[in-house]
Amino acid sequence: MSDLANEPGPAVRLRLAEEKNVWLCTVRPDGSAHVTPVWFVYQSSRWWIGSDHSSVKVRNIHKEPRVSLALEDGRFPVVAEGDASLIREEFPREVVTAFEQKYGWDVCAPTRPGSKRVLLEVHVRRWLLAGVAQ
């Protein structure tokens, strides 16, 4: 696999637009991994993930922003490493629209009474892609 700091090529961008799930790995306070499948959109060179504000992933990111993301197909891996930030208000309209178009889902809507939504915005530090290993 190769490290790429820039935007992935057209084939990977197409997968990012079409695939429904990505595995998100965050770091627990004890240093162990927390891995969970999540819905996402990739827009403006960033991964966007909606979550409940009290979720394990949000608590982990609050303390340690480094994350990894991996698309589900292990034969043709697409893995990104990056830094996540939490957006608690004023979700970007284009991201909300992208979730609606991709999933028919309002990423802003609470999943249970009294809960609040946050957006995870992941800036990629490097891509690890299949087919480019030396």
Strand percent estimate: 35-45%
Q: What is the CATH topology assignment?
A: Pnp Oxidase, Chain A
Q: Please give the oligomerization state of what you see.
A: single chain
**Overall average residue pLDDT:** 92
- Work out the count of structural domains: 1
Radius of gyration, CA atoms, in whole angstroms: 15 Å
Q: Kindly name the structural category.
A: alpha+beta
Terminal CA distance reads 7 Å
Percent of residues in helices comes to 10-25%
Low-confidence stretches: none
CATH architecture: Roll
Task: List the total number of helices.
Answer: 3
Shape: globular
Looking at CATH, the homologous superfamily is Electron Transport, Fmn-binding Protein, Chain A
Name of the level-1 CATH class? Mainly Beta
Domain Pyridoxamine 5'-phosphate oxidase N-terminal: 11-128
InterPro entries: F420H2_bilvrd_red/Heme_oxyg, Pyridox_Oxase_N, Split_barrel_FMN-bd
Protein name: Pyridoxamine 5'-phosphate oxidase family protein
Organism: Streptomyces carpinensis
Task: For this entry, give a set of tags.
134 residues; alpha+beta; 3 helices; 8 strands; globular
Architecture overview:
- This protein has helices at residues 10-18, 56-63, 93-103; strands at 2-4, 21-27, 33-39, 41-43, 46-52, 66-71, 78-87, 117-129.
- The chain has one domain (2-129): Pnp Oxidase, Chain A (Roll).
- It is α+β, with helices and mostly antiparallel strands.
- The chain contains 3 helices and 8 strands.
- The protein is globular, with a radius of gyration of 15 Å.
- β6 and β7 form a beta hairpin.
- The chain is 21% helix and 42% strand.
- Strands 1, 2, 3, 4, 5, 6, 7 and 8 form an 8-stranded antiparallel sheet that branches.
